[in-house]
Structure formats: C-alpha cells, structure tokens
Write a structure and sequence with these properties.
The structure holds three protein chains of three kinds.
Chain A lengths: L6 E5 L2 E5 L5 H7 L24 E4 L6 E2 L9 E4 L5 H16 L15 H9 L17 E4 L2 E3 L9 H8 L6 E4 L6 E4 L12 H5 L5 E3 L12 E6 L8 E7 L2 E7 L12 H5 L14 E4 L3 E4 L2 H14 L4 E5 L5 H15 L3 E3 L23 E4 L4 H12 L3 E4 L3 H9 L4 H8 L4 E5 L7 H9 L9 E5 L5 H10 L13 E5 L1 H5 L1 H9 L2 E6 L2 H4 L5 E4 L8 E4 L5 E4 L10 H11 L8 H12 L36 E6 L6 H4 L12 E4 L1 H7 L6 E6 L2 E9 L7 E5 H4 L5 E5 L1
Parallel strand pairs in A: 1-5, 16-17, 16-22, 18-19, 20-21, 22-23, 23-24, 27-31, 28-30
Antiparallel strand pairs in A: 1-2, 3-4, 3-5, 6-7, 7-10, 8-9, 11-12, 12-13, 14-15, 14-24, 25-26, 27-32, 28-31, 29-30, 29-32
Chain B lengths: L5 H16 L22 E3 L14 H5 L5 E7 L11 E9 L8 H5 L5 E3 L14 E2 L1 H5 L20 H4 L2
Antiparallel strand pairs in B: 1-4, 2-3, 3-5
Chain C lengths: L18 H6 L4 H8 L2 H11 L11 H6 L10 E6 L8 H8 L1 H14 L4 E6 L4 H16 L7 E6 L9 H8 L23 E5 H13 L1 H5 L9 E8 L5 E6 L2 E2 H8 L9 E5 L16 E2 L1 H6 L8 E6 L4 H15 L5 H19 L4 H14 L7 H15 L1 H10 L31
Parallel strand pairs in C: 1-2, 1-4, 2-3, 5-10
Antiparallel strand pairs in C: 5-6, 7-9, 8-10
The chains are: A alpha/beta, B alpha+beta, C alpha/beta.
C-alpha cells in the first residue's frame, strides 16, 4: 500500500496535492498563493486563529474561516482574498482594526523596513484611515529586561511572545494582562524577563513592540548586509545571520536550521557579539617588558620574536587549545607545531572521542524521541527536550552522569530495560568528565542502539569545536612524541584557554609563554608575547558541532588584527612548513585526510549531518574507589559565562550569582536555609558562597558555577 | 561645369557680420545671476521647529529614497538631558555627499516630517572633494551664499505645507 | 397559556434546597432509574425528547451528547455552564437557589449517560449566595451517598462574561486565560484537558431528570414540536411584575408581558422588546404576537437566545441603549481576536459621539460599516453579539439616531430612563477605587 495518500485541494482555482493534515497556509503556498498571517507560527504549537488575518472562504462553510486553523482535506475548495471579495474585505477589515490604534511610529520604529504589518498593509490593507478618535497611549518604551524593550502602543496582540514564553521556552514570564481592549503584554509581576531564550521574542514579534535595546536605532534594513554564518559560542552551532553596517556587527539573527536550532537562539549567541568591540581588545602584538608592562610590536618583529621563542624551546612545546578555533586554524597550528617543530602535545579543556559517531543523529531527533534520560542542561538542547516532553516523551533526569550510565547499563534496571525496548530513545549527557562521549557510547552500545536509526546519543561538550580541533590536530601529522618535560614553551591559543586555571597552572611550569587572545585582561602578567586573536564572527572556516555536523563560518567583519591563518602561515614558512593563509586551501588539505575530500564550497548553508560511521567500542570505566566522606563537587559552566559574555553589559543581569546548590536533604542535615552564606571547604581552601536549595539535585552532590568555584574540586564540605 | 558662386560665401559672411550688431543674449555670470524659479532644487537644508527642536528624527527614509545613495544617517536616542529632536530619536550623524547628489528632490518627497528640503542655492563649489561632504551642522545652518530667486507671485507656485506650518 | 413548572416545580411551596424536602416530592428517583439503565439508553431518551439547549444556542442536547467521541482512551467530562452573565438573564440563579438538588440530580444522570466520573459546575463568581446553597446541597448529597463514583466540582469563575462561552469556559477551568479556542475541534472530541467533554447550561441539565423519569417521548409532546418543553423566562425591564416565569415554549410574548408581567407601569407605551438577552436583536411592538419558541422568534428576525425578555418603554433612548449594550461587550471582550477587541472599542467611541450629539452624518454610516466588518469575522460569537444588535437598533430606530445628529444632542434631554447607567470612567482602571472592607 502507498505510504501517504496525497489529498487534492483547490486554492484560487489552482489544484495542488499535499499530504493530508498539512496546514492550509502551507497548502496555499504550495499552490503559489500567499495567505497573510500574523499570529500563525507553527513552531509555537497549535494554531490559535487569533489575529483573523488569514480569513478565506471555504466552500461549504458559510462564514469566513481562519486558514491557519484548518488542515487540508480531500476536495477542499479554498478562495483567498485574491479571488474572493468577501475574504479580501475580511482581511482588509482585520488590518483596519489593527491600525485603528496603532501609533504612527514607522519613521522612529526599529522594525520599519522589515515589518510584516507594513508589508501586509501595503498589500491587503486600507489605503487611508477612518479613525478620528484619539488613539490609546501607553508609557513607552518599557525595558522588560536590559536587552529587550516593550512598546505597548505598537503591540497588535498576536500573542506570539506569550505563546513562546509559555509553550516553547516554558518560562512563563511574558504574559498578557487585563482583558479585551485593555489587554497589554507584561512580564510576570513586572520582574525583568530573565530567561536564557528571551531574545527570541524580538524575532517573533511582527511589529516593533518587542525590540532589542542593543540594536535600537542602529540601522535600517536597507543600510545593512546580512552575513550567513554559524555561532561559535557553544557546541550546538546555531545557524545565524550577522547583520553588519559599515563594517561592524550590529545584531545577530537566526538563520533557522530546522535540524539544529529550529530558528531559536539563546541570549548568549544573540547578544554577546559586542565583545568584538570590548574596551580591552588587543589589536597589536605585545611583548612583555619587565617592570614596564607591555611594549607594542610591529607584526614583523612579533613574528620574529615568536620564531625565536619557538626555536629556543627545542621542540618542548605544549599547545593549549581553547576549543573555539576553527578546524583550519587547528590544522594550521598543528602543521606548524607538529610538522615544523616536532611538538606533538596539544591540550584541550576536555577529552573528545569519535566513539559517538556510531550513534549520530540531528538534534531535531530529540523532539521525536519517546524516552530520554538527561544528565544536565545545555542551551538550545534544552528547548528540544522541552519540545519532546510536550509531545509526550518521557524525560528522565539521571543525576550524576557516570553513575547514571552504570546504573542504566545494568540489565536489571527498569529504565534501562525500557531504553532497550524503545525504538526512539535518546541519551543526553552534559557536563564534565564525559571522556568526550566515550562513556555514553559504551552505554549506547550496551543498550543496543546500534541497529536503531531513530535512537542515538548526544554528548554536550563545553567547547564549541572540540571534536573538529582534535581531529584536525591529529590529521596534521602522523608522528607521535612524548609529552615534554620540562615545558620549554606554552602556546596558548584562544581566550577560553587563557582564562582556564588549568592552563595557568601549566604556564607556571613553562619557561616561556606565547598567548594568542582577543582581550588584554586575560594575558597580562604571565605571557611573554601576546598575539592578538579574532572571534568566530571574524573568521572564515568550519566548525564541527556536537552532533558531528560540519558547518561553515563566514567572516562577517574584518578583524582589527590579521586572521590567525595569516600569521601562522608566515611563521610556518620559517620552519619549512607550507600552510596556506586561506581557509579554503587549508580545508582542502584537512578534508582530504578526514572529511573524505569534501570541497570547502560544499559545506553548505544548511549543512547536512554525515551518516553514521563505525567507531571503536569503548568499555565503561569500572567503579572508582570510594572517595571518602563529604559531598561531591560538580563544577559546571553556566550558559552566561566566559570571556565574551563578561564584556557585554546587556547580559550582566543573566550572569550566575556566586551560589552553591545543595539538595534539600543535605541542606536540612546541615541546618542550612536558602540564601544563607555558607563556607565550602576542600583540602584547606575555602570559599564563602550563598546557599541555594535545588529540589532536583541528588543527595551527596553540590554544584558551583566554574567561575565561582575557584580552586575547589573533588569532595567538599559545606558548613554555615 | 558647376561653379560655386563666390557671392554665396560673401552671403555667409554677411550673416556672421550682421550678428556683430545684434545684442548678445549671453548672461554674464557672475555679474548677472539669473533669478531661479521658486521651486528650483538646489542645496539641501535641514529644518528646525519653532521651539528649537530639529525636525529630523533620523528615520533614514531620505537615504532609502535617494537614487544616488549619497545620504548617510546614523540615529541615536533622545535622552532627558539631551533632547535634540521632537521624537524618540534624532540623527546623530547626517551627511550628504554633494558630489554624488543629483538634486532630484526624492529625499524631500520621502521625508515624513518635512525636515529636509531642497533650497535654491547652487553656488556650492569646493576645491576638494572631501569638503563636499556636508555634515548636519552645515545643513542646519543658513547657507552662506545666496542666489536671487524669482518672485513667487509671478508664477503659479503653491506654497509647500512646511513653509506655513511648523 | 399557563405556567407549567417542570424545573421549578414545587419550589414555591417547599424549601427544595433541603435534601429531605426534595426527596419528598420524588427527587432522585430519576437518578435511581437512570442508574439501572444502560448509558446509551439514557442518551436515547435525551434524543427522543428533542430537548434544545437552554443556554442561548438552542442546540439539541441529545445530539450533542451523542457526538461525544468514544474509544479515545481518555476520560469523558461533563461541564455545567452556570456562568450566567448574559444581560437580562437570571433564571439559572433562581433554579440553583430554589432547586439545587434538581441540578445535582441532572448532573449525575447526565454523567451516567456519557459514562463520566467527573462533573465540573462552572459557577459565575459573583453569585456568592448561590455558591453557598450549591455547596451545602452538594455536601448533603454526598453525605447521603447519592454521588456514586462521580465527583462534582463546584468551581467559581472570576468575573468574565466570555467564560460563559464553552471553549473559554474550558480554558478557564484548565487554569489558563479565559479565551475561546478555535473550533474545530469541538469539545465533544477534544474539550477539557483534550478529552471528550459535554457542556450544557444549568437549565438544560436540570431538565434531564424529568425526561428520564417520564420518558423522552412524553417530553417531546409538550409544547410545539420543533422546540418542546418549558423554559424559565426572565422578564425584566419596564414591567409591573418582573421575575422568572417557567412557561411552555410557544407561549405568547404579549401574554408574558401584559398578563403575567402586568404590563408597562405608569401608563407608558411599549417601545421595544429584547427577546433573549442583550445579545439578541431587538423586536418592535408590532411583533408582539410572536410565539416564544426558537423557530417562531427566528422567523420574526430575532433569536430566542437565553429567554431573557427585556421590555423597553418609550422613556428609553435607543442610542443610549445601544451604547450601554456595546460598552458591556467592549468590557467583556477577551481580546484574542482583532475585530472584536478593536471593533467594540471603536463602536463605543462612535456611539458615545452619537449620543453626545457631536457626530456627523457620515459617522452613522461608519458605525454600520464597522459593525459589518465585525460580524462573521470573529473567533467566537461575542463579536456578533456586540455588532448584530447595534445594526438592528439603527435599522429599527433610525430616525432616533438621526435626531441625535440633527439636533446635536439627545432628544430626551437627560430624561431618558437609561440616563446615569453608563459605565463610570474608571471602570477600566482595574485598580481598587476604594478600600475593600475586611
């Protein structure tokens, strides 16, 4: 029997065949007819039919119907405004009613030029107004958060923002108050809109009611250029457009990759781009001069100095990578270090492993799964998990990830049994110590995911391109070498590495240090030579995201300092290694070795996920020795942390407070009430933090954000 | 054998000779400046309300309408202590590149606030191209040189709305 | 025509809110009988009775019950719409105050018919006394073990007319904003919590026991064939004896107003009649001889609606009536769909201007155009209820509207009986105007 029968629908006299259940708006689009909409947004759930913009005549129904609420059935005859006078009048009526109290703000409104209300009024609306009464006014604009401004006069009450807040981000902070003509949009109890996905309402709002304060009055749509690229602040790799004007990035919009981000961006990716213009951004190479601080060098001098330092180290070089380099950068660095200098040691903040390649899936598969144990949370992935829960999936929190893996692998475990039986189960692991996904891969193999195309596993690393870098570094040379002892030179690449206390510890042991960073604050005091770095928005190259998807970055603006590939290639020359300064050529080399010769130009705008590959099957590590009394400390990286976010004023209100999270049981036993200041001790070091009780935390575990945890680690004790 | 009549050449000279005694119609600029029509499109001017607030809100519609892409507008927000225009925003930077401008008047038509109009001055030559980029202060100010304008009543010129209403 | 009391039978003689009294007149016998019948058989009786919904829409109840989706694996729910907010109606209040156990019995019988174990009575929040009476009656019924395996939840609304609309009622019950849902899907397929739900008016449910007891065919023979049975008419306005009168459907309008109601006081003339609550269109005195049943009133160009007959004499200014009515709908509009939300406000502004005498001739046509743009384009019927009557007021009393324009003011000069009934200015601030007494 045929898989899906198509139904025939006639729209404005044109016949079209679509699968049954397709929304009528999409059906009309398939027939080449546009039905205007405001409140219809399929990503927000079921259609509400609130704005009445999409009114059309359906044969057999006496009243005009809202097309967005209807689905295609066989033999349906639809007449839209283009052929039906009643429907045209209905749509004009809707626009007239919207405009009756809409302020004449177009010249001063940020949405002007890219405003659906303007466009639809031009196409379907009345030519002039019949309203002679004074329009209703509100105080405007109201900042509902440092990043978003609300203008109630412009709001057309399409409820897209409240539906997003209620059913996608599920934070319930943006609500509608009052009723009828008095309805307004507000935040709950007038608190600021504090949620990691709040910025999406700016893109959802069809008028200029919700606008970005960062982008306020910055540019008009005809003065800008949109550069399609990929966000490089977290391993999800959401597809974005960087809006630039006169050579500066002015805002970030989503480019909607249906499998990766579905058109949503987290606030970090959306608002953190201003770190490109941070005050302590370095534009010139700097050399440390004792007692005087830093001297500015010319590039020739700097490269000469770097070459000297590299030669002096005699191959005892350790490269500390931050995980946000592009694949090309990592390969170029690898060629320089490994092929040119014989220094094979590269350090990443965490392990990577190819083991999960056998269970590869796009992120959108999370929404369609039926069973998911989740270890912790992560940005866009959280939205996918919420969508899954709304569709009826069973989502389990597995608590401590490694222990969770062991429990699930046990054949007697009930949840483990359901996972084995399910056809669409997904494992998600977030947090430290995941061995790059190897543990998860072992569990997945144990649970029998190998033969099931709809089942898979995701490991959420903390670096945006860790996997790509590890592979590129490995591909740079076939030789191996021992770890240098003592370390002659530490080459620190990237700001995250420069901010990492582990790398600082390495720097203490190294004789010399070269740092390649964007911000001066991080490198002062311990680097011998500082080379200015670039951001993901300023580089051409590729990233590999947590799914294993290769995505193309594009340069949105020209950086104040040359691209890393430019000076790496010059340095490499001095050591008789040929590295091209152009990303496309470098990629061609890398691609031959590890990406099956995929050409640079074909990495694609909506990059596909490569099919699963066989990978070695690791074993789950055995139970470690009991760690002694005390609470196990889990250091986690909150979403709004990192050197980029620290330099964005609009995001400071989202930064995590210096808190330690405890389970209710542990807090109760120690007599700690929420909000009290407690002392957390470990091996002699101690810190004062505020206590916070988290119900979902398992007993025996405490969580502290990495930036507040200082030197603590392992097991700690918490006391009042 | 056809022979050109030499008298014809003399006739030609005669035409030229007669011109010596005719009054020339050349207007000797710059001693005589012919008055321009009242709606002559010349140098731009940015206008101000009676209370001193600028009319321009920095909406950039003039830049959008301009076929020569010669207007640059960068907007900024009016604050309580620095209120420049009558709306929520004002033009922090407003530049017109006079060497690109074709004086079509589309910016004047596009402006929703009658903030920019084309005046009558055409004596705006400069020695350097950089000097031809007019900034907001230059456009707000009265023009330095003035040209004679024909009497409005001689022509059926409607008075633009902005000239009678602030 | 006589008063025929089925729903309010014996309510005048005894205190039927007491369980013992109710059982003395034969109460809960229908429940016992229904529980011995199969659920399908009860639905059969309802279908046979041809009982039409008494909430205003007049949809046959048996058919509605039979539409309930079966075999979905989800529980079925019964919702009783006790959110009586239609201007002019006060019959459900009377039924619940005087005869609460009849409603409870009706709930239990209907719950049995649709195999539901959960009944929700959504009660208008302002009916505090009714709440107390119902609560006590439910307690008594529970103590007497009459509930069986059914749970009846008495839920108070929070002051919104729109929550009387069935899908908005379900949203409100679910704890969300009381705004209607797009239909389809209808509540019979996906209602409360996405499960098959039957929603009916209080009076409809209160009629179920007598149908089950005496049989559907018996009921179908009472009154005119297309709309059988009795209806509690709420008579109000300019009459001597306003109140609730339970009459056979098909009784005459003239008899109701002049015989039972005692006619217009003070020797005034009848000017207009609203037959079914302010949502229905106005009738004029030449239509006095209309029979009060669904079909006859529809033929006369109006709707029987919720059977709330409002009598208006010649002291009332029709423009003021239109304004007051539209102010109500503007205040009660939920704000979800654009035409109702903006259209009712614009209509109020235009009507206010007309009443003040500041309107121009074109604005009367503008008012009609706005009404036309609201009619048929809204998400629920509230928009139609707001705009439809205004169109009819203008059509039937055009000269009065014209006089407002020509004379530059209300011809009644402040003497209209509707003077002073308009919404006060700070109605819309939603902030407490005075201290709430402890």
């Amino acid at each position: 029997m045929s898989a899906t029968e198509l139904v025939t629908v006639t729209v404005d006299g044109r016949e079209v065949h679509v699968p049954p259940g397709t929304g009528l708006v999409e059906t009309a689009l398939a027939a080449g007819v546009e039905i205007p909409v405001f409140c219809y947004e399929p990503r927000l759930g079921a259609a509400v039919g609130a704005c009445r913009m999409c009114l059309c005549e359906i044969e057999g129904m006496p009243k005009l119907q809202a097309a967005c609420t209807l689905t295609a059935t066989n033999g349906m005859i639809v007449r839209t405004a283009q052929t039906s006078e009643r429907a045209a009048e209905g749509q004009e009526a809707t626009l007239e009613f919207i405009l009756v109290n809409h302020p004449l703000d177009c010249p001063v409104c940020d949405k002007g030029g890219e405003c659906p209300l303007q466009d639809l009024t031009f196409r379907w609306g009345p030519g002039n107004t019949r309203m002679t009464f004074p329009k209703r006014t509100f105080e405007k604009p109201i900042p509902i958060s440092p990043a978003i401004a609300l203008d109630r006069e412009r709001c057309i009450l399409c409820y897209r923002c409240t539906r997003f807040s209620e059913s996608v981000a599920e934070d319930g902070q943006l609500v509608a108050l009052n009723r009828g003509a008095e309805s307004v949009i507000a935040t709950f109890e007038d608190e600021p809109y504090l949620a990691p996905f709040s910025g999406n309402v700016i893109e959802l709002c069809p008028v200029g009611a919700l606008t970005s304060t960062q982008y306020r009055f910055e540019a008009r749509p005809w003065e800008i250029q949109n550069v399609p690229t990929v966000c490089g602040l977290c391993p999800v790799g959401c597809n974005i457009q960087a809006t630039t004007r006169e050579g500066k990035v002015k805002r970030i919009l989503s480019r909607n990759h249906p499998e990766v981000d579905e058109g949503w961006l987290c606030d970090k990716g959306r608002f953190a781009f201003t770190h490109l213009r941070a005050r302590d951004r370095i534009a010139d190479p700097l050399r440390r001069v004792r007692r005087r601080g830093f001297d500015v060098l010319s590039w020739d001098d700097a490269l000469g100095e770097a070459a000297e330092l590299l030669m002096q180290a005699q191959g005892r070089i350790v490269t500390a990578l931050s995980g946000s380099e592009t694949v090309e950068q990592a390969y170029a660095l690898g060629r320089l270090m490994r092929a040119g200098l014989g220094a094979h040691t590269g350090v990443l903040p965490e392990e990577t492993s190819p083991a999960l390649d056998a269970f590869r899936l796009p992120l959108s598969a999370i929404r369609d799964a039926e069973l998911e144990p989740v270890a912790e949370r992560a940005p866009i992935v959280e939205l996918w998990v919420k969508a899954a829960r709304r569709q009826g999936a069973q989502v389990e929190q597995a608590g401590d990830a490694l222990e969770g893996c062991r429990r699930l692998a046990d054949k007697r475990n009930a949840l483990g049994k359901s996972l084995r039986e399910s056809e669409r189960a997904i494992l998600i692991w977030s947090g430290e110590e995941g061995a790059g996904g190897a543990h998860l891969a072992a569990l997945a193999k144990e649970l029998g995911f190998a033969g099931k195309p709809a089942s898979g596993a995701f490991h959420l690393p903390c670096t945006p391109n860790g996997r790509g870098i590890a592979d590129a570094w490995a591909a740079a040379s076939d030789d191996e070498g021992p770890n240098p002892e003592p370390i002659g030179l530490l080459f620190v690449s990237g700001d995250e590495a420069a901010a990492d206390p582990n790398v600082r510890a390495l720097a203490e042991r190294a004789e010399r240090v070269i740092v390649n960073a964007m911000f001066q604050g991080l490198a002062v005091g311990w680097a011998d030579l500082v080379l200015p770095g670039t951001s993901y928005l300023e580089r051409d190259g590729t990233y590999v995201n947590l799914e294993g998807r290769l995505q193309r970055l594009r340069r949105a603006v020209i950086p104040p300092a040359p691209d890393e590939l430019a000076w790496i290639s010059k340095l490499a020359e001095r050591f008789a290694v040929e590295v091209s300064p152009h990303a496309s050529a470098v990629f061609a080399e890398v691609s031959e070795r590890i990406y099956d010769g995929l050409p640079f130009g074909e990495v694609g705008e909506e990059a596909p996920l490569r099919t699963r590959s066989e990978a070695p099957a690791p074993q789950l590590p055995s139970e470690p020795a009991a760690e002694g009394k005390g609470l196990r400390l889990v250091r986690y990286r909150p979403l709004f942390s990192g050197p980029a976010v620290e330099r964005v004023p609009e995001l400071q209100f989202q930064r995590p407070a210096p808190e330690v999270e405890l389970s209710p049981g542990d807090a109760g036993r120690r007599g700690i009430a929420p909000g009290e200041t407690v002392t957390v001790t470990h091996n002699g070091t101690s810190l004062q933090l505020r206590a916070r009780i988290t119900k979902s935390l398992r007993e025996g575990i405490v969580r502290i954000a990495a930036e507040h945890a200082g030197e603590l680690g392992g097991t700690v004790e918490v006391a009042k | 054998m056809a022979r050109g009549n030499p008298i014809d050449s003399v006739k030609g000279f005669g035409v030229t000779f007669k011109q010596i005694f005719k009054k020339p119609i050349t207007q000797q600029y710059p001693e005589y400046k012919r008055p321009v029509y009242p709606r002559f499109r010349g140098r731009h001017r940015l206008h101000v309300h009676e209370n001193g607030l600028e009319k321009c809100v920095g909406c950039s519609l003039c830049a959008a309408a301009c076929p020569a892409d010669c207007i640059r507008v960068v907007a900024a927000e009016n604050t309580a202590d620095n209120r420049v225009s009558a709306g929520e925003r004002y033009a922090r930077i407003y530049e017109i590149n006079m060497s690109r401008c074709i004086f079509c008047g589309y910016c004047e038509l596009a402006c929703p606030f009658d903030a920019i109009t084309l005046g009558n001055e055409y004596e705006i030559s400069e020695y350097s191209r950089d000097d031809l980029i007019y900034t907001k202060d230059m456009l707000l100010a009265e023009p330095i040189k003035k040209v004679p304008v024909a009497d409005r009543d001689l022509y059926d010129t409607p008075i633009p709305y902005y000239q009678e209403h602030s | 025509m006589a008063i025929r009391e089925l729903t309010l039978a014996h309510a005048g003689e005894r205190d039927l809110s007491k369980l013992a009294e109710y059982q003395a007149i034969g109460g809960y016998k229908a429940l016992a009988k229904a529980r011995k019948m199969k659920p399908e058989a009860v639905v059969e009786q309802l279908l046979a009775s041809n009982l039409r919904g008494r909430g205003g829409a007049g949809f046959p109840m048996g058919r509605k019950a039979s539409f309930l989706a079966k075999g979905t694996g989800k529980p079925t729910y019964l919702c009783v719409n006790a959110d009586e907010s239609e201007p002019g109606t006060f019959k459900d209040r009377e039924i619940m105050l005087l005869n609460p156990h009849r409603l409870i019995e009706g709930c239990l019988v209907t719950a049995h018919a649709i195999e539901s174990q959960n009944v929700f009575i959504y009660l208008r929040g302002e009916y505090l006394d009714v709440f107390e009476v119902m609560r006590r009656a439910l307690e008594d019924a529970r103590k007497a073990g009459l509930m069986g395996d059914v749970t009846i939840v008495l839920h108070r609304g929070a002051g919104a007319y729109i929550c009387g609309e069935e899908s908005a009622l379900l949203e409100s019950l679910e704890g969300k904003r009381g705004q209607p849902r797009p239909r389809p899907p209808f509540p019979a397929v996906s209602g409360l919590y996405g499960s098959p739900t039957l929603i009916n008016n209080v009076q409809t449910i209160a009629t179920v026991p007598v149908i089950v007891e005496k049989g559907g065919e018996w009921y179908a023979k009472i009154g005119p064939e297309p709309s059988p049975g009795t209806v509690v008419f709420s008579l109000s306005g300019n009459v001597e004896r306003p109140g609730n009168y339970e009459l056979l459907l098909g009784s005459g309008l003239r008899e109701l107003i002049y015989d039972l109601g005692g006619g217009i006081p003070d020797g005034r003339e009848l000017k207009a009649i609203i037959p079914g609550g302010s949502s229905t269109t106005v009738m004029t005195p030449d239509q006095l001889d209309t029979d009060l049943d669904f079909n006859s009133v529809a033929e006369a160009g109006s709707q029987l609606g919720a059977a709330a007959v409002i009598v208006i004499d010649d002291r009332a200014c029709m423009v003021q009536l239109a304004l007051r009515s539209t102010q109500f709908y503007m205040h009660e509009s939920c704000g979800k769909c654009t035409p109702c939300r903006e259209g009712t406000r614009w209509m109020v502004q235009l009507l206010q201007k007309l009443e003040d005498g500041r309107a121009e001739q074109s604005e009367l046509d503008l008012l009609l155009s706005v009404c036309d743009r609201v009619l048929g384009k809204c998400l629920c019927a509230l928009g139609d209820f707001a705009a439809g009557p205004v169109v009819e007021y203008v059509r039937n009393f055009r000269d009065e509207f014209q006089r407002h324009i020509d004379e530059g003011g209300c011809p009644f000069g402040g003497e209209s009986s509707l003077e002073g009934t308009f919404a006060p200015v700070d109605q819309h601030t939603h902030a407490p105007v005075a201290e709430v007494p402890a």
